[in-house]
Specification:
The protein is built from 4 helices and no strands. It has about 80 residues and is mostly helical.
Length: about 80
């Protein structure tokens, strides 16, 4: 049962990889930023745009979280 729940949460890494890819694309297209705030604002706006597309919640997260708290104690 835990294995099934872990798999459901682990498969969300595809979503995380997608976010990372989109953030890299945003920063790669613009070669230089005038200051750190410009980078943060660009990434914030990109994340804001991405979250408008998200419609499904993470499945079984509340059931898998206790397992991760035990497995990765001190990291979560």
């Amino acid at each position: 049962q835990y294995l099934y729940k872990k798999r459901r949460v682990i498969y969300t890494t595809n979503a995380i990889e997608s976010v990372n890819s989109q953030l890299r694309k945003v920063t790669k297209n613009k070669r230089s930023f005038p200051n750190d705030n410009a980078v943060f604002k660009t990434l914030f706006l990109a994340i804001d745009y991405m979250t408008k597309k998200w419609t499904m919640p993470i499945r079984s997260w509340s059931e898998a979280m206790p397992y991760f708290l035990i497995k990765f104690e001190g990291r979560i």
